[in-house]
Amino acid sequence: MTNEHVINYNTHDAPRVGRTVTSYISRAESKARSLLSSQQAKLGSNTSPVVMQRISRLKRELQLLSAEPPPGVSCWQTEGRVEELQAQIVGGANTPYEGGVFTLEINIPERYPFEPPKMRFLTPIYHPNIDNAGRICLDALKLPPKGAWRPALNISTLLTSIQLLMAEPNPDDPLMADISSEFKYNKPLYLEKAKKWTAEHAIQKNKGCVVTEEKTPENKNKKTAHKREALSAQENLEHTKKVCM
């Protein structure tokens, strides 16, 4: 295995994804920009303003995610379709997901950003708010009145919010009632099972996927800023709503 396919991160701090991504992610991001530009040119004036807005918005978001990804997060476009993305989240330090790399599927609806993206985990994860199909209980992923999506949110904010949900599960609004019960009443068992799932599904099967970044004060400040942005978004998302039960 060559160096460009090796995952490196610092386990003493929350893992972070840097400006230098692995070769296959770099190629995917380059193709994403090219596909979006060609799709935009091909559609031209015959396309509705809503679709054009989606294409333009996605182009800006992917460029930003490529240049300044949230720490521990990467996102790129799959080949051939502008509305299909994939992302990876590195499990946070001091969580049962530490050391794991979790892949997500993202589908962008035609009315984006007026409708939220559809996101689900492709990598199995043992979590009270994520079910066996990878569906995620997060109010930002649903439209009002049950959810709290709004066009001001974006893919980066959603991925950071999911990263925070991994670190801080919400057992009072679960998708998996049995895991929620373990989290509340038998946390050592929950931690043991979550670590086992991480080792089986998110470490062995994801070797050679993500990125390295040097630990610098600048990167630490970026991590704090992204986390503050996600927390601010979550504070505005009416946590009292039960969106998954």
UniProtKB/TrEMBL annotation:
SUPFAM superfamilies: UBC-like. The active site is at residue 137. It holds the Pfam family UQ_con. It is an enzyme of class 2 (transferase). Residues 53-203 form the UBC core domain. GO terms for molecular function: ATP binding; ubiquitin conjugating enzyme activity. It comes from the Eukaryota. InterPro entries: Ub_conjugating_enzyme (IPR050113), UBC (IPR000608), UBQ-conjugating_AS (IPR023313), UBQ-conjugating_enzyme/RWD (IPR016135). Its EC number is 2.3.2.23. Keywords: ATP-binding, Nucleotide-binding, Transferase, Ubl conjugation pathway. Belongs to the ubiquitin-conjugating enzyme family. This is Ubiquitin-conjugating enzyme E2 T. The gene is ube2t.
